[in-house]
Batch of 2 targets.
Target 1
Amino acid sequence: MQVTVYNFREYDEKKYFDAYAEELGITLVTCPDAPTLDNVSLAKGSECIDILTSKMTPELIAALAQQGVRYITTRTIGYDHIDMKACKEHGITVGNAPYGPNGVADYTVMLLLMSIRKAKQILQRTNIQDYTLKGNLGRELKDMTVGIIGTGRIGKTVIQNLSGFGCKMIAYDLYESEEVQKLATYVSLEEIWSQADIISLHTPLTDDNYHLINAETIGKMKDGVVLINTARGPLVEAEALLAAIESGKIGAAGLDVVENEFGLYYYDRKNDVLDNRELALLRSYPNVTVTHHMAFYTDNCVKTVVEDSLRSCVCFVNGEKNPWQVS
Ligand code: NAI
C-alpha cells in the first residue's frame, strides 16, 4: 500500500517514517509542503494521505477525492483544520493522532510561569546587560487561583503538574472527571471568569466555543488576569485580546497559538511582510510570550504521531477496527 505524506520533515520525522513504513509494508510518497491544489497529483495511487495542520478546504478535499484519496490522517490531536462536512460529502474518512499529553502540559506550565515571573522582559534585559530589578516583580503561584477550561487529557495533566505548586485550582468542562476532582474544584464558567488569576485553555475548538474569550467574557475577569492558550487560536478573539492587554485588564499572556496562524507557523517568513497585524502587536508587548505552536514538539510526540498515523492507514485500508478514526 502507498501513503502520501505531506509536510514531511527530513530533520526529525524521516527516521521514524522509514522505520514504520518498512515494518508495515508501506511505500511512502513524501512532500515537504502542505497539500495544495497544485500538488494534489502526488496523492494519485494513495488511498491515504498523511497531513499536518494545513487548511483542508472543500476545494482541496474535492481535488484529493478525485485522485482517489479515501482517508486523511492528521499527525495532530486537533482536526479543526479539516472541513469534515466536505470529507463526508466526498466519502473521505478522517483520523487523528492523539499523542501523550505531557509535552503540551509541561509547556503550558512553562508559559504560565514565564508569564507570572515576567520572563520575556527579564531575558530581554539580560541580553542587553540591563541588570535592574525595577519592573520585574513577579508573583508566586501558591498565592494564585488557576482556572483550567477543558479537563481532558491535557487539562488534567496540567492540573496534575500544577498540584505541587500549592495554587488553588478551579476547573470547567462539559463533563466532570473524578480524577480531576481530587485536585481541583469544578465551577461554572462565570466563576472561572470572576475567581481565576490565571486562565488556561485546554478545549478543542468547536462551534460552541469559537471566541470563548471575547470582550464580554474578558470584562468579567479579574483585573490583571493572566491568559494562557496552548489549545487553539480562535478560542480567543484577537481584537478583544489586544484591547485588554493594552488597557491592562489582561496583565500577561502566554500564547502558543493565535488566530490566523495558518501559512505562518512552521515556515521561515523572516523576509516577508506579513498580514497578521494581531501577531505583530502581540509579539511586541513585553508581557506577552508568543511561541509558534510548539507545545507538542517533543521527541516522544514526533515518534508517536508518525507511528500512529501510519498504523491508522493500515487499519483503514484493511477494514480493521481503527482507534484513530474520528469521522
Ligand atoms: P481532550 O479531548 O482529551 O480534552 C478536551 C476536553 O475539552 C474534554 O474534556 C471536553 O469535554 C472538553 N470540552 C470540549 N468542548 C468544551 C467546551 N465548549 N467547554 C468546556 N470544555 C469543553 O483533548 P486534549 O488532548 O486534552 O487536547 C485539548 C486541545 O489542545 C486539543 O483539542 C488541541 O486544540 C490542543 N492542542 C494543542 C497543541 C499544541 O501544540 N499547542 C498540541 C495538542 C493539542
Target 2
Amino acid sequence: MDKLLINGGNRLCGRIDISGAKNAALAILPATILTDDVCRIENIPDISDVSVMIKILAALGADVKYINKNTVEICAKNVRSFNVPYEMTKHCRSSYYFIGALLGRFSRAAVAMPGGCNFGGVRPIDQHIKGFELLGASVSIEENAIVNAVSDGLIGSPIYLDTVSVGATINIMLAAAKAKGLTVIENAAKEPHIVDLANFLNTMGADIRGAGTDVIKIRGVEKLKGCTYSIIPDQIEAGTYMVAVAATGGDVLINNVIPKHLESITAKLVECGVEVEEYDDSVLIKSDRRPNKCNIKTMPHPGFPTDMQPQMAVLLSVAKGTSIINEGIWDSRFRYVEQLVRMGASIKVDGKIAVIEGVEKLKGAPVKADDLRAGAAMIIAGLIATGTTEIENVVYIDRGYENVVEKLRAVGADIKRVKVTEQDSVSNVS
Ligand code: EPU
C-alpha cells in the first residue's frame, strides 16, 4: 500500500550506480536447478521479482543462502519436487522458466500459469510449448491452468520460433542444455539477458554457441557443475535513469553499465538533443534544454526496447513538436497514457500508435503505476512536473527497481516513500 510522493522541478546531478539485470537474474536463478553443486550468483538485484523466484527455489527444496543482499548461493541438490503451484507463480511471470529448468532436470514439470505485468492483452506461451514439444515433451494445460510437461528424456531438435520471443528462447535453452544431441533455435531473441544466461550455463559446463545472434546452437551435455557468476548490469534500469536526467535537466554519471547495451536508447536521446558521453563502464548524461521531438518504434534487440517505451513517452510529452511512438512488441502498452494526460500531457493513442504533442510543462497529480515500466514513467513525470505527484501501486515498481527512492534522492530528487495506513492517512517511512 506504499505510495511515492515527488515534488518535481529539481535538476539531477551526481552519480547513479546501476544494479544487476532483472531479466537476466530471472532466467539464471531457475538454471541453478540444473546442477547438484553450489552456484554463487553475484550482482543479483534486490527486487521483489527476484525474491519470488528465490522463494520458489526454496519451496522446491533448494538450499538458498544470502551472502549479502546482492550475492546468493544456491544448491539445488535436494530438489525433489517438479511442482510449482499458483500461489507461487501468481506474482511473477518469469516463474514459467521453471518449466524449462524442471524439464531439464527431471524430464517433468507441472507449473501453474504465472501472473506478472498485465499489458491489457493476452501473453501467449505457444512458442514455449512448441519448443518443449519439439524436444520430445508432451505438454498439456490442465483445468486450473497448470502446464504439465512430461518426457522420457529430452532430445535435441531444430526449433524455429514463429515470433521472436525472449521467454521462449530462455525456456528452450534451459530445457535443452542437458538434452541429448543438438538443439538449434532459429529466429531466437538476441537480448543481452539471453547472452547472460548462455554465459552462465556455459560457465556451468554447457555447450551453447551463437547467443546474441538469431541462431543459438545448444549441444546437450550430461552434467552441469556449480560456478560463480556475476550478472550483467540492468539495461532498462540504466535507460530509465538516462531518460530521467534528460527530462529533468542536469548532469549524471550512470555507472556500472555496458554502454553497448544502451546504444538504441543513447541514439534516441542524442536525437532529442541530450548529450551522452560513453566511457568503458558508464555513460554521462547532460541536458539543459527542452528536448527535441523524435519518433520511436519498439522492436526486439538491438531495436529500441519496449521496456523503455513509457519512460520515453514522458520525455517526449514535454518535447518541442510532435512525436510518434509505434509499439512493435505488445498489443496494449499505452494504458499509462491516461495517467500522463491527467498530468497535462497531450497524447492520442490509436491501437499500437501514440501521437504525442509536446507541451511546455506537466503538472503534479495523483496517479498510479499500471505496471512496472508505467510506474517508472510516472516517477519521471513526477520529477519534471510542477507541484506534487503521488504515485500509487508502488508494488509494481518494487518488482524491478532496486532502491529507486534512495538512488534518485542521492542525485537531488525530492522523492519519498510513504506508507498508507488503513485510515488512508499518510506517514513518512523513508
Ligand atoms: N509471444 C507469442 N508467443 C509466445 C511468446 C511470446 O506470441 O509463446 C509474443 C508476445 O505476445 C509478444 C512478443 O511475442 O508480443 C514478445 O514476447 P516475449 O516472449 O519476448 O516477452 P516475454 O519473454 O514475456 C520479456 C521481458 C519483458 C519484455 C519482453 C520484450 C522478462 C522476464 N520479461 O517478456 O519485460 O517486455 O521480453 O522485450 O524477461 C519488463 O521487464 O518490464 C518486461 C515486461
